[in-house]
Structures are given as C-alpha cells and as structure tokens.
Amino acid sequence: MDYADRLLGLLPGSRRTPGLKDLLSAAEAYLPADQVERIRQAAEFGAEAHRGQTRKTGEPYIAHPVAAAEILAGLRVDADTIVAAILHDVIEDTPIAKEELAARFGAPVAELVDGVTKLDQIQFKNREEAQAESFRKMLLAMVRDLRVILVKLADRLHNMRTIEGMSTVRRRAIARETLDIYAPLAERLGLYAMKLELEDLGFRALYPQRHRVLEKALKRARGNQREFLTRIATQLAEALKRAGIDAEVDAREKHLYSIYRKMLRKRVALNEIIDVYGLRVIVEGPDACYRALGVVHAAFRPMPGRFKDYVAIPRVNGYQSLHTTLFGPNGLPIEAQIRTRDMHLVAESGIAAHWKYKAGEPGSGAGPAQAREWLTNLVAMQESGSSEEFLESVRVDLYPDKVYVFTPKGRILRLPRNATVVDFAYAVHTDVGNRCVAAKIDRRLAPLRTELRNGQTIEIITSPGAIPNPAWVNFVVTAKARAAIRQYLKGLRRSDAIELGLRLINQSLAELRLSLSDITPMALAATASELGMADADELFEKVGLGERLAPLIAHRLGSSATATAGAAGDENATGLPPVPLAIAGTEGMLVTYGRCCYPVPGDPIMAFLTAGRGITVHREECANVEDYRRHPEKWLSVTWDPDGGRQFASGLRLEVANRVGVLAAVAAAIAGTNTNIDNVELHERDSETSELMFEVRVRDRRHLAQVMRVVRRMPDVLRLSRTLATRSRDE
Length: 731
Known about the structure:
Ubiquitin-like (UB roll), 6 domains, 18 strands, globular
C-alpha cells in the first residue's frame, strides 16, 4: 500500500472523493508528507462543504475541484495553490466564509480562493458587466499573487474537458470566453501546453461541425506523412550526432485550432497551409541552438523569409526558440524549432517553470518578471473607466500583434502593432511619458504620433515643465498610456480642463471650417444635455480631461449649427453647406466599413468612433448598430461623400439549386454586369440546395440593385439577399 492509499484509508467509505487518489499520488511525487496530508484534509473539508451538490454530469461536485487541483499538481505547484484549487468554489457555493478558510488553512489560501471567487452576490446592470467585473477582480488579485490565475486556468481547463453536460447556448458562451480570454491569457503567461488544450477544446465546443470536418480532412491529408516525418527526424538526429551536438529530435503536428486560425487569417484551404508538420530539436545550451541551426540548414534547404530568432529576442511571455521552415524531401515544407531543455520547459509550463512559492515571493527568471510587469500595469488600467472598458483594454493587450523596438541603450521593448512614440515613452516609464516633448527615431526627429516599426531605435526628449497633451488619448493604443494620460488629466484644475477642452474642440471644428463662434449657446447646451451633462462648461471639462473625444463633439456641434441655420431659412448662416462627415476620411480619420453589413453609397448609415482606431461605418439596419446604441456618445450621424469616385465591397447571399455548373453560371452573370468578384464561398446545405456567398465590388446602391436583378432572374437561384448581421448569427 502506497502513501496515497494510506491517506485515503483515513476517510470513511461514504466520503471517498472521486479522483483524490490520483491527486495525492501526483502531490506525493514532489511534496513532503505533511503537505500531502494537508491536501487530503482540504479534500475532506471540501467534500463536506459540497455535500449534496452535483455537477451537470451527475457526479459529486467535489470531483471538479479535485480534478483542477490534479492539473496543478502536474505543474508541481506548491501545496497552498493545490489546497486553494480544491476549495476554490467553497466561498461562492457554500455558506463557508473567507475568515473560516483563513483560520483553517491559512490566510494565503483564503486570499487565493477569494481572488478566484466570482461576484455573484453583487447586482449588476447586465451579464456582460458582471462578467467584466469578475474578470477585473481576478486580474487585480493576480497582481498580488500570480497563483490566482493558475487556479482559475486549471478550473477553466477541467470545465472545458467536461463541458458536454452544458446546454448548447451555455456551452458556446463558455467556449467563446475561453478562446477570447483564457487561452490568450495562458499564452501570455507562457502556459503553452494549457493554452493549446484550451484552444482545441474551445474550438470543438464552439464550432463542432468545423472541428469534425477539419479533423477528418487532416486525417486524410496525413496519410503516410507521419511515418515520413519520423524518418526525417531520424536522419536529422544522425546529422547532429555526427556534428558532435547532443540533441533530441521529435516529430510533431500542429494543433487543429492553430491550423483553423491560419486558414481563416490567410483565407486558404488546408492543403495550402505549409507548416502543418514540424520537428522539434532539443539541445543542451544556447550556443548549441545556433550550431544545430547550421546543421539543420545544411541537411535541408531553408525556405527564404521563414526564420525567426526568439532566443535573442524572446516573446513577451518569456518563450525562446529558433524557428525555421525547411524544404523536406518531395518539397514537403517542415517547420523546425530549436531550443534548450530549459527553454522547452518554459515553453510548456511558462511561469510555473520558474515560479517559487516561498512566503508568497516570486523566484527568479524572465517569465515571472515579465508576467508581473504586465499584471502590475493592470492597477493603472483599472482606473481608466468602467469594467467593460477595462476588459476591452485587457483584450487589446492579450492580442498584441507585436512591434520590437530599442531604447538608446539597446533595451528591447515589445509594443502592440500601430503603437506610437507616446506609447513607447509610457512603456519606458510613466514619468517619461508625462514629460515627453519630442522624440528621435533612428537619430532623426519625428512627431510624437508616429507609428513605430520593427527594429527602430527610439530616443525620448523630455522637459521638466511638460504635461501630457489630452489629444494623445486619440491616437495612443496601449492601455497603460491611455490610463496614465487620463489619470494625470484628472488631477488638473477644473478651469484648466475647461480651457483645454475649448481649445481642442476649436481645433476639431477648424477641420470642419467652423469655430465655436459659429455655435449658438442653445446648440452647446443641447449637445451637453444629450450627453448627460449639466452645461457647456462640463462638456468642455470632459473633453479637456480626455473623457470625451473632441472630433466627435465637433461633429455633433457642426450638425447642430447647420440644422439651426436651416431652420432659420438662412442658407448661408455659416457660409457652408451642411457638415456631414466625409466618409472618404478628409478629416484625417481612419475610416473602415463594417464587414457585417457591407454599406455602399446610397445606404442609410451610422458610424461608431473609437479613440485611436477611427470610425467604422455600418448600415442603419445592421444588428450591430442596435448593440452599439448602448454607447450613444460614441456614435456619429454620417452621410456619403458625393465625390467618392471609388468602389465598395458588398456581400450577396444566394440559395441555389444544387446543380452542376450553377456556381460558374452565377459568377458569369455577375461578371456580365461589369462587376468584379473579390471572393466566393460555397456551403452545401443538403442534397437539393447550396448556399453561395459572393463578395463583389460596386459603385453604389443602384449598381448593386442592377447586379441583384440580373442574378434574381436566373432559374437556379431560389433566394437572394444582401449580407447583413442578425441577432441570431453567432458564427
């Protein structure tokens, strides 16, 4: 009888906990006996607390937290973390209070459990706000102790493994949240193995049909490739051995979700994905990585432009490896990853590979340091606004399309794509950002709003008397910079803020060939009232503090001015025609068109404005417009530029008879109207009908109507409509 069996013998037969033996065996492998006993006591306490509670699958509820704890034991975390995982639902789902947990298992365990606990006891306006506030609380708890997120990720992983018991709607909601938040969070913290499993489980739950189709297609495409790849791995291992390099070479295959994302991103079929198969080379030291790279490139010709050095420049989560793509025998593309054993441990386990839990203090290593640096910034972020805004800021940071730039001393900083000089300044230090007045990029002066590119060296010029410019809020992209600017501006005196707001609105009105003198006090008061403010001074103050966007207010005021002039019968009251937003972007704004509804000239439209991202134009009947109505302050009433002179994308959805040649016939009919086709998708609905999705280029609504008339007359076309997002659409 092993130690785990002896501990289990201490439990009465009726209270044996499912999965406890496996947990105790895993803990016994690296923890002392007294800590394993403590874990057993926690399981007994949790089983008693959750007595009578069951999961959707019908098993006792305690099986879930024990399974989550076993996942963490596989990462070899400390006993406090495992105990917290066993008890993570006790405060939320039982009458037991945090104080009782602290008295029984210690304050650190109680704090960990509280950090994971949702805020179900508080009443929120909607489910989205509750979810965002829960997520805010969890992330801020992470700043104090990173073990909180380890418990939460283990909890989510086991929930995804057993998600079949949920309803379809609930299953899809949890899967989407997992793919949007928890899998990227695991990647950001370097928990790569957990990230991959979360992604594949989320993909299967959210898109079951796509998962099945892709899985079957991959099995067919695989054929003898696996055996072929194994032979290549053996050949490469022998070449490394001859070169005197001690290495392990393993063949691997990409996960389904990563293949699916690449297919979506590049809009290609499975057979066009070139790096489905790969090799992993594990060597002893960093210098051996580069020597092994030479051997690999000598054995197989490398593919140009496909080499990445994450050893010299690690990813933000501490990941290090050399990546190269090779031309294998018969032209088969093969991705090779070369790393040390330590790098491999970090790649698989992330912060858990470096972290030491001694009195709550972090151990050494780049992974935890970088994770803690990012998490510490959350404290500043959460000052910036509501829970929903906070969650959106975190989403931006979880999906960083990265740019690598250098300080004058050679320090590497990683910033999101489209980051500006101001974002860089705040990344160096908040004080540097607050006092920056100019910058040099590669030793040449550059504007502060200049977007950065890979490899540039940035030097920030500061002045002791400088203060942040409120206009920076309109173009910075990092959450840290935006939060720091707003926090500083909140400290300004009201009079200063009003003065700044006046100046910023005047600047934006000047782009519309107007000024505040053209705006009547009545129009100012009406605009302030529409936005929920007492008077014009409060409106100016909000703009000066960066809480309202000057371009948006200017357009509202401009519309009010022209409307007042029209009502008075004075066509030249301002000397100008009405002031619509020029969709072509003549005010310097970035303009994009909603892919959900494909607006074209002639459609009634609305535009949503986001700081730093410009405006997105939607058709008024688009379902997304109804969703955005919750934020009326960010909406613009816009019209089309009469001198557009360009073509616009539009979507057509056709239900057609499933006959040979129908796709070619429809495409020919569209082309016959002198219309370009950008993209075509075909989905077979049943044996009788298919669905065709066309993306075409048209001048305006009249041109589109002509195309639709021609297509609608075809005998094989059963139904035709424009693409439009609806409430029921979830994929």
